[in-house]
Design goal:
The structure is a homotetramer of 424-residue chains.
Chain A: H1 4-9, H2 16-19, E1 23-28, E2 31-34, E3 39-42, H3 45-48, H4 57-68, E4 79-80, H5 81-95, E5 103-106, H6 111-126, E6 131-134, H7 143-146, H8 152-156, E7 165-168, H9 179-188, E8 199-202, E9 205-206, E10 212-213, H10 216-228, E11 232-236, E12 260-263, E13 276-279, H11 299-314, H12 317-336, E14 344-348, E15 351-355, H13 364-374, E16 377-378, E17 380-382, E18 388-390, H14 399-423
Parallel strand pairs in A: 3-16, 6-7, 6-8, 8-11, 11-12
Antiparallel strand pairs in A: 1-2, 2-3, 5-13, 9-10, 12-13, 14-15, 15-18, 17-18
């Protein structure tokens, strides 16, 4: 009867709860507890929104303090101390050391809103309407962002045809095709039928597409291509930014400087709704209020965001991600991949994919997930036909919990593979 | 130098801060304090997001408690105790007593996201693409909702033409035209050129349009029209719901039952980002995850939302709004309107408009606002050419503060009118 | 078996042949003969394309002569003698006497192509995307023009939503509404949601909409409105131009000068495909070949077009149209309208409508048409639910044939009304 | 002064006349004469509309006869003897021998209208909105067809963004990419972002794209792909049908059967406007009149069309095209290509391209054209940057005239190449 309220009154659109069939009450770090006291290890991580772990004490203290002293909570886009503290800290400790001179736009507190803002600004700056987006991409569910998002299930929800976007093959899709040369041909061939875009939007690691890490060289060539043709390069770092790949911005490894960067999910530090759009100052031709929204000034999130950045610095968090990435990689390569020669392993830092697409029928990955959940682990799927199991722990996960989680994945995979082969 | 950080690093898109040129630090009830200790009275109210006042103690206590006990904060759309508590309370104390059997969809935590969800579902249910929206309406800034929003400044931000919406004249625009008969003609005349819509979206009181209260009879005829032609009636109660007009839902006064209702702003109780979409159960044909988003499960907001509803019940808050509405109306009609025969007063409950459109040149209202701010009051403009001063205090404002605020408006108006006439 | 070839091999999209169920072989003036020798009187007139009658001898002679001497027939948009002759004659005898300084664009030889050209140019000149079109309008069936066309059956054929057009209520639809003031409000109200258009497109007499003649005063106010706001006024004179209303251009009666005029149908003189777009010289910012098409240089049509204009001049044709208009009007008002008090008569010149919409159920007009056909007359329907019988004879019809035709209409109406009342 | 009338009164959109700066008066076979008596050889061929030569006597006789006996000229879509004769002959002598059971739709008499009809029907039949079109394609200039057309100059004329089409790389653009596999991936990958199309539209020989002949094997694989996924295959045979490539339908060489075929240009036989759409009977779900137009029944063109087919049969015309193709090919390969190693020769039958793209700067091809015109030849350019000279003589051209024309091309090329190298 625990789910009756939800099943009766909440819309059928709900999804994660169908996989994680418990009522959760409390959480800490990489653990959650449901109302019956059962403990879970979290390799799902709020789809990337909980990089600092659940209810991180360092942040929590600041939030309670801010609430207790009646710090202003709702601030629209007014000037507030909490916002100023965040901006200053973000500029001084994150942007300047990376030689990035971005201005900050506080968009509505969701990733999709940051992307919508970026599209509006890119079209406004260039006077062009078309946008290049990568096949395999996910950028959000409101109508502007949804036109970029590639999965058919989401797109069909639109109810109207989606326009003004040209989808570019991701390099892993057609290895024989030089996708940068392809884009160059599209915009220099006066008979391509494809309009020169205002911007190219991409994730440096496609997450929902199935955990595909784009090559450094490819990223650099893309950046050079965009610069050459005055196409704005917009990096959607909503899921793989904030240290997830081992550097704060996911594009640092390629040494490129996008024209715009969208951040959300873990930027709010504590799982609180927040999103920002960064862009080069010369692009800042917005008129006052031209894009707005009621919750752009979620002060509690600003307090948490600053605290999270401080915490990361003090714990040298982002650098440690690389080490954890090695642990995960080694485990997956050495312990999981050998279970079936058709398993593919992809990822970096604290975002990985175990691709069962060639292992068994569609649904195999889901069976592994279900087995993981039986073993008290939250973990998600991604990619084509949801065939990719996606271990994505908090950046803060202790090594023993990380290994424990990986073991659950291994055992669950073994069990499902045994069933699979038994059926044959 | 207080604003230097903002002016250097924050995007030019910022707007309210240009009117309210202070750095705010703390807030309580209907008051805010800036970093220099100056106190302000709040007739702006977070654009309607702070109906229970700033940092309401009843709610605050619950939030701190929830944080302290490590209640799960980020919950995607998983089942949680906090969400169940909210759903149950909302169903039992808000919907059932009003004989409303809505299901609840937790959309991304912004009003525009709730509207996008409603549009998707309406198109999905009906198989139609067109939407009717009212001239004067504001429904949000992401591309789906923006197509409905009417102000040109916002629309131009789109960067591409906006489609699939037919704008219907609001009844106050052409009093000689029966707008319901007009809509009926559009969809029954086989040569109108206007496709039958999936839905009609409206605010029962147009807020951003300039505080226009739609007649009960008109609302009833609209509801009957929609029912007759199987067009879904979607009420956007984001700004004027949650008791703002004297009943929890703004449409209660008309005795109608919309097919969908969008709530945001004050539904989060404490100014925390939250939005929900309510709809009749038979419309709930969503597939799992067909519309999603990372912050649909902002548990802290659910805790605040439930607490706010309890608080409202215990303090008989919504009923008191009617009384405050009378106070405001009497003051504006008797003290402000007589200052100039061309002033128009409109509104109800705790949302009012003082229309200076016929009083002086465009910009007159802004001068009154500036004068109010000099007298330590936050207040906004709305409507055509921003000609309408918009007193919108918290529902919880004590009577003495309310009167004090109204006096500031009166004095500010007097001063500006004196300048205006002196110039002539 | 006469129709077997058609019914077996021609698409189901065919329509007129379903009403006029004969195989036609020859034609002359206002008469046609089918393969069985049966003679018909033509009040259908090729939907307005045969204003000079079938196979007009004056024109025919020129065509045969041109063919015999191997005059160039297909000329793309090359310079030819036939084209020069047409241009010169059209400028000297049609435009200059009317003080119209239009340039001529030879578009693809169909009305819809002329409209598509006008829309492209209007958008190019103004940089705006929206177009105002009147409810009740018909402007063509290709996708650009179809977005303006209002009848639902045609619009549904599009297969995709139609965009970038705002439909304006025709003045007869809501007599209480000042439609010019309405348009002015739409573009001056910064919260209308309706973008200022590049152009307003209209027929001065709505033909397919049901034969509605727009008032001179209304047309003048519309022209002034367009001029004031720099909106291009485009008159679609495809059906009601070329003398149909008693002047060569239908807008002459209002003394206005549209920015663009589309002509087709009878401009080709002999029923040959031809279309032109006229526009003020300062609008001529086309780049070479920016709109093109293979049959823009249908030289045979140019020869016929010039001959037709000469013929009209020699026979004082257009002035005589007014006289015929009086004859038709008197007959319809005095002989047909009295048959049923609910019959409505509308029209001018040689285009009239007998509206059965209030006389009997949908389909009544069709019965009258069928009865007319039984009595050897071709005539069409128009308007809402096809309720309007549309007598539209050639401008050249002799008075006796005109009266004979009108008698057929009267008798057919009488018969159907008798059946109708007998059924009650 | 010869051009003054045109330059003063005709729109700047005119294009061919800027290359062929003469006023043409008469024409016969492959020759034209201007008003000064100068004779030209025609390798332009009305952009493919004059495959039977100018003013072909066999056809001419029928036209004059039809005119003289007052055969009905304008017939809307009524049943007429001329139409029936055409249908019967076309079915019996063209379709049945090829085992093609198409129904015929008489669309508006332009190629673009036939394409618009095809798009509407494809969307209607499948319920899908997207269309696949090939990069390099040209399909027309009205808004529906223009969305498919690829050259940027044409597309920019639209004035609004063009939608609902996905452009597929032509196989010659990225030889390393298997374009059929590419399309298959787009519609089977649930994360491609590209909606399954209603239809794939293609020319089997891209004409305006630069004379690219698609491989038989590729065409067969495309046809199989379309069949497998129930995507309608629409062949645009407007320019390269009617025997241009050596068979009546250009796709015969591949042994495929498209679902729809668009014909225009030379189908009218004598350069008269005509267009038809052929489709499989099971697709014929049109409602009566759902796509219409005033000039669908251009009877004179039907008379010419039938006569042209008879003429072709009697003269064994289409088979002779292959022989002429060999002559042209040999000449171009042996006499023209050796003039510069960077010249590329492409084509088949009576449509060829001499690609100067790699020979010299953009504009080189135009210089060759100008030189040809000085030598009394009409010839056009095509392709990227207009770099391809396009010899496209009438199918009926006598061998001596053909060789004479080819010599002009050779000499003109030599002269321009000499200038080019002299300049360096």
């Amino acid at each position: 009867m625990a789910f009756e309220v939800f099943e009766t009154y909440e819309s059928e659109v709900r999804s994660y709860c169908r996989k994680f069939t418990s009522v959760f009450q409390t959480a800490k770090g990489s653990k959650l507890w449901d109302e019956e006291g059962r403990e879970y290890i979290d390799f799902f991580n709020g789809a990337g929104a909980l990089s600092y772990g659940h209810n991180n004490d360092y942040i929590k203290e600041r939030l309670i303090d801010y609430l207790q002293k009646d710090g202003i909570i709702h601030g629209m886009d007014m000037y507030t101390g909490a916002k100023r503290d965040f901006i200053e800290y973000f500029q001084e400790s994150m942007l300047k050391p990376r030689d990035l001179n971005y201005k900050i736009m506080f968009t509505g507190p969701t990733g999709t809103n940051a992307i919508e803002s970026a599209l509006k600004l890119a079209r406004k700056v260039t006077g062009r309407t078309n946008i290049f987006a990568m096949m395999g991409a996910f950028h959000g569910m409101t109508m502007g962002a949804l036109a970029l998002t590639t999965d058919m299930s989401s797109r069909k929800g639109a109810g109207v045809p989606l326009h003004d976007v040209t989808h570019i093959p991701a390099p892993y899709m057609f290895p024989e095709l030089d996708t940068v040369a392809y884009m160059e041909r599209l915009i220099t061939d006066d008979h391509s039928g494809v309009e020169k875009p205002a911007a190219l939007v991409l994730e440096t690691v496609q997450a929902e597409g199935g955990i595909y890490v784009f090559d450094i060289e490819w990223l650099q060539r893309v950046a050079a291509f965009c610069k050459k043709y005055e196409i704005l390069l917009i990096v959607d770092d909503i899921q793989v930014g904030c240290g997830r790949t081992g550097t704060f911005f996911s594009f640092e490894r390629a040494g490129i400087k996008p024209d715009m960067v969208a951040l959300s999910k873990s930027i709010g530090g504590y799982g609180l709704p927040m999103a920002i759009l960064l862009f080069s100052p010369e692009l800042d031709i917005w008129k006052p209020g031209e894009h707005n929204g009621t919750f752009r000034g979620n002060q509690l999130a600003f307090v948490a965001a600053k605290a999270a950045l401080e915490f990361a610095k003090e714990t040298n968090l982002y650098d440690n991600v690389k080490k954890k990435g090695e642990i995960i990689k080694n485990f997956l390569e050495n312990e999981v991949k050998p279970l079936d020669e058709n398993i593919e392993i992809r990822g970096m830092g604290c975002i990985w994919g175990i691709d069962f697409g060639k292992v068994g029928p569609v649904g195999t990955s889901r069976k592994v997930l279900d087995e993981c959940f039986k073993n008290n682990m939250l973990i998600e799927l991604a990619g084509r036909d949801d065939c990719v199991l996606k271990p994505m722990p908090a950046l803060t996960i202790p090594e023993d919990e990380l290994l424990k989680g990986l073991e659950i994945i291994k055992k669950s995979t073994q069990k499902v593979l045994a069933q699979l082969h038994g059926q044959e």
